[in-house]
Amino acid sequence: MKPKPNTSEEKPSLVPPFVALILSLILPGLGHILARKYRKGLTLLLAFLSAAGLWIWRVTVVARREVGFAAMFTKAIRLEPILILIFVLLVLMYILIALDAYKSAHISKPNSLLLWVTVLVAFFVLGWQIGEIQPAVLIRNGKNSLPLLMRVLWPWEKAVYYPEELLIGSADVVIPCAGVELETPKLEADAPYLTVDPTCGDLSEIGGKEGTRLKVTGGNFSPNTETEIWWVDQVRNEFRYRYGGDYVKVTTDDNGSFQLDVVIPYRVIPTQGEKGYVVWQLEARQVASIGKPVISEELKLSVEKMVETIFLGMMSTFFGVILSIPISFLASRNLMSANWFTKTIYMIIRTILNIVRSIESLVWAVIAIIAVGLGPFAGILALTIHSIAALGKLYSEAIESIDHGPVEAIQATGANWLQTVWYAVIPQIIPPFVSFTIYRWDINVRMSTVIGMVGGGGIGYLLIQWIRLLDYQSAGIAIWFIAITVAILDYVSSEIRERFI
Question: Could you tell me the CA-to-CA distances from 281 to 164, 225, 236, 241, 322 in Å, in that order?
Fold first, then answer.
């Protein structure tokens, strides 16, 4: 069947439609290429090979212990049924590519909507499987994260604390009873005190009998106030007294006194000292007063590190701008196309900028830490290097998009290259340069919170440490400061743009 003549300016296909179909069945996209649909053919070829390669990779990952692809395929389908859907989409894509090649060789612009939808759906399902997306797990376990999320969203209880003054009365208890008589402590007037009867006893046994029951009397405490009971063992380990699974506490009467019975608890550590006995202390602790609110150490650290983060972003932006401006002129095609020497410089600088820009700031931070050690200086170096590459590209593109009328007019007067740049180029590039600089400052401030996680200074270091310690309230304070700072910087940058652009 002969192809219909093209009504457009496109050249006719090099092969008949049926041949294009057969060739696309041999190699997807080959028929499009021979039908002179070069970009479409290459795109479909890369898309099919990528999707097929990812599917094969997932099959081998899911069933890596099996020998032979058939056994891998069978087990992978059993473990991950979604791989069957991906396989069906690949077969459908393969067929549609061949049919589209037939149409492309037959008419100039075939309707390829179904083909592209199939490609997008195939990659979406692949992404779903590779990403191990499980909405049911999110719904089922999401409620468990709500308390932690609330600590992050409202962490201000930890931003301040109230100093507490404790009233403590104590009494010594000998364990076990060894015929030892303890000296009677001297009681100070109006000072809290405890007495126990008897003054010695045996520990409780795990799963066995209870320890000695003591009658405890306390006095000179604050009246009508809740009081906690604590034990302090022979190695000064403090632990709150529990009985029946609940912490024991008592409320004093109008005179600040109380009475209760306690059982000597059990301890895993040995209790036999060098003398055959040890001395424990029984304490009654009562909050006597609460002082004025005091700023917590976490809040102070967050403010300190946030200021460090802001200046880290500011200094890296400053150095990045200063160093990228001269580089951007050398990386501009319209200014460096005079001869082969300038073109060579242009290509070298462009290549270096692309390589440096392709490496994330986090990686540069790790390299800088190796060179100069932990701290904000490493973060400034990392962000400066990345800023030079990013701003150099943006600045050079702004230079390449200038109006060439003023350039030609200045050159017509006999001006040299430097004069042309000064009088014809710079006046046109100031607005975009200011816009790109402000945008980069905003990026650097936000990135400085990330590179701090690897030791590059700033509030990111605190944030990652608090998250690792499961201290979500402290982490919430840091996140709030980051959000507030970014919002303020966005407002400031918008005001600067209105004035200069």
Answer: 22, 22, 9, 12, 68
Domain residues for the domain of 385 are 297-500
| Residue recorded with tokens 């395929």 | 73
Please report the DSSP string for 414-446 in residue order: T--HHHHIIIIIHHHHHHHHHHHHHHHHHHHHH
**Dihedral angle, C-alpha 231, 232, 238, 240, nearest 10 °:** 0
Q: What is the pLDDT of residue 55?
A: 92
pLDDT digits (tens, 9 = 90+) for 99-128: 999 988 887 788 889 999 999 999 999 999
Contact 251, 225 (CB under 8 A): yes
What six digits make up the tokens of 176?
A: 């076990």
Whole-number Å distance between alpha carbons of 363 and 351: 19
CB-CB neighbours of 67 under 10 Å: 8
Dihedral pair phi/psi, residue 292, rounded to 5°: -70, 155
Spacing of C-alpha 219 from chain mean position: 54
Distance CA 457, CA 362 (A): 12
| b/e burial code for range 456-481 (CB count within 10 A of at least 16 → b) | bbbbbbbbbebbeeebbbbbbbbbbb
Q: Which helix (H) or strand (E) holds 455?
A: none
The 10 Å Cβ neighbour count of residue 246 is 7
Residue 265's φ and ψ, nearest 5 degrees, are: -75, 180
**Whether residue 251 sits in one domain with residue 180:** yes
Boundary-marking domain end, from 227, 259, 290: 290
Last residue in a domain, options 290, 317, 350 = 290
**Which H or E run includes 243?**
strand 242-243
CA 263 to chain centroid: 49
In this structure, the answer to whether residues 272 and 364 fall within a common structural domain is no
pLDDT tens per residue, range 365-404:
889 888 888 888 888 899 999 999 999 999 988 888 888 8
Phi first, then psi, for residue 136 (nearest 5°) are -65, -40
Residues 366 and 432 in one domain: yes
- Torsion over CA: 314, 318, 323, 329 (sign): positive
Residues of the chain with pLDDT under 70: 1-10, 179-187, 268-274, 289-291, 500-501
Q: How far does the chain reach from its first CA to its final CA, in angstroms?
A: 61
Residue 429 tokens, joined: 């590039």
